[in-house]
Every structure is written in structure tokens, then in C-alpha cells.
Amino acid sequence: MRFLFSWLKRMGYIEESPFAQIKNIRLPQKIVQPYTAEEIGRLLACCDSRFWWGSRNRAMILMLLDTGVRRTELVDLDLADLDLAGQRLRVLHGKGNKQRVVRFGTKAGEAVEDYLERFRGREPGALFLSRYGTRMSSHSVLIFLRRLGRRAGVEKVKVHRFRHT
């Protein structure tokens, strides 16, 4: 409403906005609860690495946990962005379209290596593939995490919580 009346004033339709003296109400920010070690353990336990999707999901969870990348950044990753030896990941299209390099740990590196060696291969293209062999969508990550959370008995499984863990 405030914007509408500001526009009406700017355009000369009204003399003064009735909202001019009213201050915005600041709502308290929601605190994002990080995952507990037990919740992470339960999520990883539900990733059966005998199957390609379990290996991929395990690698994705460990990468999210170590790097704190956003969901869109995760699905935009290409194999060329990965430096396993240096344990670095190049994020090309971050928030504000900024490029940055993030580091990951040994466990995440080993999980990605396992996924690449046993299932994905080393062909150029998207790092994490869908069941159709194409780049995963941001929405498909949301769906897989939701399903994984249900199986693991972990509530509110979202990518953003990994950034706070």
C-alpha cells in the first residue's frame, strides 16, 4: 500500500501519502536451525552407495555440508569446476553472479570421487546428473532432499540449513 500511495503522490494524483508518517514494522528474523550430527548421520545412512543415486546423493550432501553452496550453485556445477586434488570447487554463478572458490574436506572429496569413478564417469558437463543423464534441476534437489528427510526421519530438510551447519 505504501508503494501505491508513494506512486500516486509522485504522479500528482494526491497531495500527501497517508503512509508517510507510518514506520515499517520489523519482523524478527527466523533463526535457521543447523542440522545435528545425528541428523547428518541419519541422512547419510539413507544414501545407499551401492546404487548410482545413493552415491550421488551422498556426494551432494557432503559437498553441501562442506562448502555451503546454494541449491542453484550446486546444480550449476560442472566437472570442470571441480579440483579434487586441491579440494577446491569453483562456483561461477553465485549470488549476484559473483565467482568464488570454496574448499571441501576429504570425506566430501572421497564421496565425489566414488560417484565419478563408479557411476558418472569423467565426461565434461554437469557434475551431478539426473536419472536421465542430464543436469539436475534446482527443484529435483529440493524433492530428493525432502524424500531423503522422510526416510531418515529428519524434519525440514532443506539446502539452506546446510549453510548454517
Q: What does this protein structure show overall?
A:
With 165 residues, the protein is mainly α. The chain folds into two domains: 1-30, no CATH class; 38-162, hpI Integrase, Chain A (Orthogonal Bundle). Helices cover 45% and strands 6% of the residues. The protein is built from seven helices and three strands, in the order ααααβββααα. The chain has a three-stranded antiparallel sheet. The two termini are 38 Å apart.
What is the strand and helix layout of this fold?
Elements: H1 2-10, H2 37-45, H3 52-67, H4 71-76, E1 82-83, E2 88-91, E3 100-103, H5 106-120, H6 138-152, H7 159-162
Antiparallel strand pairs: 1-2, 2-3
Q: Please tally the helical runs, counting DSSP H or I stretches of 4 or more residues.
A: 7
Q: Which percent range describes the beta-strand content?
A: 5-15%
CATH topology of the largest domain: hpI Integrase, Chain A
Distance between the termini: 38 Å
**Cα-atom radius of gyration:** 21 Å
The strand line-up of the biggest sheet is 1-2-3
What is the structural class? mainly alpha
Shape: elongated
Residue-averaged pLDDT:
90
Which blocks of ≥5 consecutive residues have pLDDT under 50?
none
Gross CATH architecture of the largest domain: Orthogonal Bundle
- Find the CATH superfamily of the largest domain: Intergrase catalytic core
Largest sheet: 3 strands, antiparallel
CATH class of the largest domain equals: Mainly Alpha
Sequence of secondary-structure elements: HHHHEEEHHH
Domain Tyr recombinase: 30-165
GO biological process, one term: DNA integration
Protein name: Tyr recombinase domain-containing protein
GO molecular function: DNA binding
